[in-house]
Amino acid sequence: MSRMTPPRQSLMAKRLAVPVLALGLALGLSACATRPDPADAEAVAEFNANNDPLEPLNRGAYFVHDGIDTLVLRPAAEIYRVFLPPELRTAIRNVLANLRTPVILVNDLLQGDTQRAATTMGRFLVNTTVGIGGVFDRATEFGLLGHTEDFGQTLAVWGAPEGPYLFIPVLGPSNPRDLVGTGVDTAFHPLTWAGNSGETLEAITITRTALTALDTRESLIETVEQVRTGSLDPYATIRSAYRQRRVVEIRNQGGAPAAARGTGFGAGTGVPQQGRPGAPTPQR
């Protein structure tokens, strides 16, 4: 196996920088978090249930994210929806999901789930060939239903604690375990190893990231608006929905189709998309 070239090393370092810096900051701040009075049993129970010792900082980050979403992310997603017909958006979503299939496969194997790994491998082979590079999800038509896995889930299966809840502008809801998972999944992604030059690889990666962000946000337009207008506390709703969704995914309950939710980008809110299987009902 050839060594990673300097351009690839540089690009990987850039892609790992955000989760690593956010993780270090979160761990440092969590040690300084204000905890409720131990004598107040109700406050302690709520504190533990929310797992959000950095709530004031997280709410500030959510406020920043909401502003970015209002000014940039949602308008871009609406333009994306207007100018790209549904068939083309579906094809893009399918290709993005197919590109991420090797990441899912590695995590299936790391979790010792050979049956799901075989399904993932079958999906990749079918969609890459018969599905013309993943443009069409032929694997589902053949009964090979998709699911999503990531290294954050793998760490959970191995017994690693999730750590405190975090909200990171643009990236969305997360926790230290999932931030580590994001970094490792970056190393697994085939585009990390593709391309003959740093410029080509970086251009491909930026394009994939932008398309994934647009696809994710476009699919959440109605859901996010419903949370904003119908929830007394959108921040708490998103936090609850994210934590419930991660439990469902870690336990492999009601796996969602890979083409629908397997793009692997947190640029939305973590709120399950309406009509997608395997999504728990958000609660405040």
Number of domains: 1
**Helix and strand string, N-terminal first?**
HHHHHHHEEHHHHH
Helical segment count: 12
* Main pleated sheet: 2 strands, antiparallel
N/C terminus separation: 50 Å
C-alpha-based Rg, rounded: 19 Å
Strand order of the largest sheet: 1-2
Basic shape: globular
Structural class: mainly alpha
User: In what range is the share of β-strand residues?
Assistant: under 5%
Helix content: 55-70%
Low-pLDDT regions: 256-270, 272-284
| Extended strand count | 2
* Mean pLDDT rating: 81
Which short descriptors sum up this protein?
284 residues, mainly alpha, disordered C terminus, lipoprotein, 2% strand
Task: Characterise the protein shown here.
One of its GO terms (cellular component) is membrane. It is a single chain. The chain is mainly α. The chain has twelve helices and two strands, in the order αααααααββααααα. A two-stranded antiparallel ribbon has the order 1-2. The radius of gyration is 19 Å and the shape is globular.
Précis, in short:
It contains 12 helices and 2 strands; from the N terminus they run H-H-H-H-H-H-H-E-E-H-H-H-H-H. It has 284 residues and is mostly helical.
Reconstruct the topology from this structure:
Blueprint: H1 6-30, H2 41-50, H3 55-83, H4 86-110, H5 114-129, H6 138-141, H7 151-157, E1 166-168, E2 172-174, H8 176-188, H9 198-219, H10 221-230, H11 234-250, H12 258-261
Helix pairs in contact: 1-8, 1-9, 3-9, 4-5, 4-9, 7-8
